[in-house]
Structure formats: structure tokens, C-alpha cells
Amino acid sequence: MPDRYAVIGHPIAHSKSPQIHTWFAEATGQDMVYEAIDGGAEPGGFEQALHAFARHGGRGMNVTLPFKLQALAAADVASDDARAAGAANALRWHEGRLEAQNFDGVGLVRDIEVNLGQPLRGKAVLVLGAGGATRGALLPLARAGVARLAVLNRTASKAVALLDELAANLPPALALHSGGTDLLPGLPAFDVVINATSASLSADAPAVPPQAFAPGGLAYDMVYGKGLTPFLRLAQSAPNVRVADGVGMLVEQAAEAFAWWRGVRPQTDDVLKRLTVPLA
Ligand code: NDP
């Protein structure tokens, strides 16, 4: 019997995770099956589906919206990144315990540094947004050695509260800014600007002046499958800025989860090539 894995969310039909993990399993010769489970909209639906999956031999799960908070709450133990994010995107049953991880931030850093060839050590990084995606990205960005980190949001108070909460977990030498995007004209340019807002989903962009993008830098939209988003178009109006969407982050967090479950890290290049849609 192959080992069972799944992604759980609501809705879930759009998820690329079953395809990605099936490709990983084929490439690494792992005997496993991977399915999509809809946790439904009813209260308690996630927990019921989780326990039913475990009873039927489930070994691990990816978790997507809207269950990432509940996944953390359901776990017996959680990684530092999952606790800092306040959310889990991967679970495994291991030695009788349910363990939680959050690989979104690690996936983001790996995509930027390895796939896109943009080193982060010593760089100035701006993260736009103060929701779950930003929360999950901050510790991994700090571990990558960024020198200056700004978290700016449409609602300034949310960015300030988020950084206040996480500051104790960040290196003291890291220069931090938080507040509204209206601070941007007063700040030096950033080598990497990450759009961690959901603005692109409604064909909108956070308010960023072109001067915020340092020449030779990278503009990264966590959203994927939307082509050249208004944020990426805005970045292109600055001189010599490369643009990327979040498909690599998706694939890299999947590879991290796969390695955590199976003990073998799949190559991501081929999967990334198959999923990448040209931006222009
Ligand atoms: P949340 O709903 O938790 O947060 C949304 C954030 O976006 C808030 O800070 C909100 O600001 C801001 N925002 C929304 N609309 C606008 C707008 N029109 N202009 C400016 N700011 C806006 O979302 P998440 O943090 O969970 O996700 C953010 C994005 O990241 C999503 O689009 C998601 O698809 C993507 N993502 C991609 C992943 C990947 O693997 N590539 C993984 C995880 C997330 P305010 O506080 O003012 O409301």
C-alpha cells in the first residue's frame, strides 16, 4: 500500500499541490499517493477531515486557506517558523504526535536566492502587507541575513503590531521599519521588494513609488498565475528591476514539505518549468 498524503483547504479544486507532489514522487521513486481534500465550510469540518485522514493511514498533509491557523492549533508540536507565523502549512504524523511546520517563508527565500539568483545577505528588503504571508516570511528573511527589513502595509497599525510582536525573534543588528506605505518616499530604495498583499487578486497594487525599487533589484509578487500584475508593472516602470511571481515559492515550499515527509529533497527545476507561465 502506498503511503497517503493530501492537501486540505476550502475550496481546493484549484490546488496545484497534487500535481506537484505526484511529479516529485515519480522523480524520486517514492511509493505514495497524494490527494486533495475539501475541509468544507462547516465549523469542525477541518478537524473531522484531519482525524479521518489519520485513521485511514494518512502520513502528512499540506494545509491551505482557510485552515492554516486551525492546523497549528491541532498540532502537538510546532516549528519556530510555524509558531512565528501563527499558522501551519504542513503537517505530519510522526512517532505518535502531530507535528506542524510552515514552509512558506523558507520557500520564498529559496526561490529568491536559488531560482532567481538574488542573494539576500546584507540586502535591504521591503515586504508589503501585514497578513499571514508576511508573518510567515519575516523569520526566514532574517535568517537569510538581510541587513534592512521594512514591513509596510495599507493599514499602518497592522504592520507596526506585527513587527512589534516578532521583533524579539529577529537579530538585534537588523534595521527595521514598520508602518504605512506612505513612509516610502522618506526611505532609501530596496534591493528586493516583495508584494505579500492580496492586492493582485483584485487587479490592484499597493502604493509604491518607483523610487522604492533599487536599480538592479528584484520585485517579487507572491501571487502566481495572474501574469504581469499591476504591482509588477509598477516595478517595471523603475529602471533595471527584474520581476517574478510566486510560483517558485509554491514549488519550493512543496519541496520542503516533501523532504520533511520522505527524507529526500526533490529537484524543483523541472516542476518549476512545467508550471511557469511567461509573465509578459
Ligand atoms: P491576508 O488576507 O492575510 O493579508 C492581506 C494583506 O493584503 C493585508 O495586509 C491587506 O492590507 C493587504 N491588501 C489587500 N488588498 C490590498 C490592496 N488593494 N492594496 C493594498 N494592500 C492590500 O493574505 P495573506 O497574507 O494570506 O496572502 C497574501 C498573498 O500572498 C495572497 O495573494 C496569497 O495568494 C499569496 N501567497 C502566496 C503563496 C505562494 O506560495 N506563492 C503562499 C502564501 C500566500 P490591510 O491590512 O490594509 O487590509
Automatic annotation (TrEMBL):
<feature type="active site" description="Proton acceptor">
    <location>
        <position position="68"/>
    </location>
</feature>
<dbReference type="InterPro" id="IPR046346">
    <property type="entry name" value="Aminoacid_DH-like_N_sf"/>
</dbReference>
<dbReference type="GO" id="GO:0009073">
    <property type="term" value="P:aromatic amino acid family biosynthetic process"/>
</dbReference>
<dbReference type="InterPro" id="IPR036291">
    <property type="entry name" value="NAD(P)-bd_dom_sf"/>
</dbReference>
<feature type="binding site">
    <location>
        <position position="104"/>
    </location>
    <ligand>
        <name>shikimate</name>
    </ligand>
</feature>
<keyword id="KW-0028">Amino-acid biosynthesis</keyword>
<feature type="domain" description="Shikimate dehydrogenase substrate binding N-terminal">
    <location>
        <begin position="7"/>
        <end position="90"/>
    </location>
</feature>
<keyword id="KW-0057">Aromatic amino acid biosynthesis</keyword>
<protein>
    <recommendedName>
        <fullName>Shikimate dehydrogenase (NADP(+))</fullName>
        <ecNumber>1.1.1.25</ecNumber>
    </recommendedName>
</protein>
<feature type="binding site">
    <location>
        <position position="64"/>
    </location>
    <ligand>
        <name>shikimate</name>
    </ligand>
</feature>
<dbReference type="GO" id="GO:0050661">
    <property type="term" value="F:NADP binding"/>
</dbReference>
<feature type="domain" description="Quinate/shikimate 5-dehydrogenase/glutamyl-tRNA reductase">
    <location>
        <begin position="119"/>
        <end position="200"/>
    </location>
</feature>
<dbReference type="GO" id="GO:0008652">
    <property type="term" value="P:amino acid biosynthetic process"/>
</dbReference>
<comment type="pathway">
    <text>Metabolic intermediate biosynthesis; chorismate biosynthesis; chorismate from D-erythrose 4-phosphate and phosphoenolpyruvate: step 4/7.</text>
</comment>
<dbReference type="GO" id="GO:0005829">
    <property type="term" value="C:cytosol"/>
</dbReference>
<feature type="binding site">
    <location>
        <position position="224"/>
    </location>
    <ligand>
        <name>shikimate</name>
    </ligand>
</feature>
<feature type="binding site">
    <location>
        <begin position="129"/>
        <end position="133"/>
    </location>
    <ligand>
        <name>NADP(+)</name>
    </ligand>
</feature>
<dbReference type="GO" id="GO:0004764">
    <property type="term" value="F:shikimate 3-dehydrogenase (NADP+) activity"/>
</dbReference>
<keyword id="KW-0560">Oxidoreductase</keyword>
<dbReference type="InterPro" id="IPR006151">
    <property type="entry name" value="Shikm_DH/Glu-tRNA_Rdtase"/>
</dbReference>
<dbReference type="GO" id="GO:0019632">
    <property type="term" value="P:shikimate metabolic process"/>
</dbReference>
<feature type="binding site">
    <location>
        <position position="89"/>
    </location>
    <ligand>
        <name>shikimate</name>
    </ligand>
</feature>
<dbReference type="GO" id="GO:0009423">
    <property type="term" value="P:chorismate biosynthetic process"/>
</dbReference>
<feature type="binding site">
    <location>
        <position position="246"/>
    </location>
    <ligand>
        <name>NADP(+)</name>
    </ligand>
</feature>
<feature type="binding site">
    <location>
        <position position="253"/>
    </location>
    <ligand>
        <name>shikimate</name>
    </ligand>
</feature>
<dbReference type="Pfam" id="PF08501">
    <property type="entry name" value="Shikimate_dh_N"/>
</dbReference>
<feature type="binding site">
    <location>
        <begin position="15"/>
        <end position="17"/>
    </location>
    <ligand>
        <name>shikimate</name>
    </ligand>
</feature>
<keyword id="KW-0521">NADP</keyword>
<dbReference type="Pfam" id="PF01488">
    <property type="entry name" value="Shikimate_DH"/>
</dbReference>
<feature type="binding site">
    <location>
        <position position="222"/>
    </location>
    <ligand>
        <name>NADP(+)</name>
    </ligand>
</feature>
<dbReference type="InterPro" id="IPR041121">
    <property type="entry name" value="SDH_C"/>
</dbReference>
<dbReference type="InterPro" id="IPR011342">
    <property type="entry name" value="Shikimate_DH"/>
</dbReference>
<dbReference type="InterPro" id="IPR022893">
    <property type="entry name" value="Shikimate_DH_fam"/>
</dbReference>
<comment type="similarity">
    <text>Belongs to the shikimate dehydrogenase family.</text>
</comment>
<feature type="binding site">
    <location>
        <position position="80"/>
    </location>
    <ligand>
        <name>NADP(+)</name>
    </ligand>
</feature>
<dbReference type="InterPro" id="IPR013708">
    <property type="entry name" value="Shikimate_DH-bd_N"/>
</dbReference>
<feature type="domain" description="SDH C-terminal">
    <location>
        <begin position="246"/>
        <end position="275"/>
    </location>
</feature>
<comment type="function">
    <text>Involved in the biosynthesis of the chorismate, which leads to the biosynthesis of aromatic amino acids. Catalyzes the reversible NADPH linked reduction of 3-dehydroshikimate (DHSA) to yield shikimate (SA).</text>
</comment>
<comment type="subunit">
    <text>Homodimer.</text>
</comment>
<feature type="binding site">
    <location>
        <begin position="153"/>
        <end position="158"/>
    </location>
    <ligand>
        <name>NADP(+)</name>
    </ligand>
</feature>
<dbReference type="Pfam" id="PF18317">
    <property type="entry name" value="SDH_C"/>
</dbReference>
